[in-house]
Amino acid sequence: GDELGLDIGAALGYSAAVIAHMAEAVVAVEEDHAMASEAPSLLVEHGADNVIMHEGPLAEGASEHAPFDVITIQGAVAQLPDALLAQLKEGGRIACLFMEGALGAVRIGYKIDGALTWRFAFNAGAPVLPGFERQSAFAL
User: Fold this and answer.
1) DSSP character at residue 22
2) Which of 9, 84, 101, 123 is the most exposed place for a label (fewest CB within 10 A)?
3) What pTM does this model have?
4) How would residue 32 be classed by pLDDT, with cut points 50, 70 and 90?
């Protein structure tokens, strides 16, 4: 395809390599230094030369490469950071696993008029990623 993807929590790049076969290019974000530095050679080894590794906080995405047609998050989300919504192209889509207690629901969000419209895809479970926890409101 001719789409630009953003893969959050890419680890050693497996998910980015899979997405790279369906997209024109993928920006893979990983905050763990050891994994982010090992991933590029693994990606090249597996023929995924259209993946850019970006080391930094997962919740911040990679705004210098935005906007993205598709965003995937490799782990669970309790709350989606505004920074990622801002990096999604109008008409683009994002796949998220929302954990609601013990049960998680994968939903696909479509950005329409600057807001996300969600559709249920399937149930799953995974740990919530750092930076994607629900922000608790201040209360006395």
Assistant:
1) T
2) 101
3) 0.91
4) very high
